[in-house]
């Protein structure tokens, strides 16, 4: 079960890059991007999450992060990967 979750998570992280790279072969001046954000604020706390990918003539990049604040403090995570030419 853990392996299935890892495969799904990896697919969710790499799919935007694969989709963005699909149009590179025939593009002279290209730019492809994907961005998704979510925000919540209620009596339990407040949080923000974002996932995004982009492809342009200089390279590819993917990022994902989240941050949460409540009575116990602030926590979060950040992931960034990419290749630039």
UniProtKB/TrEMBL annotation:
Signal among keywords: yes
Keywords on record: Signal
Domain of life, per lineage: Bacteria
Signal peptide: 1-27
Record keyword Signal present: yes
Listed name of the protein: Uncharacterized protein
Species: Kitasatospora griseola
């Amino acid at each position: 079960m853990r392996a299935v979750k890892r495969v799904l998570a990896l697919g969710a992280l790499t799919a935007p890059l694969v989709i963005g790279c699909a149009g590179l072969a025939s593009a002279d001046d290209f730019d492809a991007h994907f961005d998704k954000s979510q925000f919540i604020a209620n009596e339990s706390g407040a949080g923000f999450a974002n996932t995004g990918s982009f492809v342009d003539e200089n390279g590819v990049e993917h990022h994902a992060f989240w941050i949460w604040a409540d009575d116990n403090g602030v926590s979060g995570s950040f992931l960034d990967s990419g290749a630039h030419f």
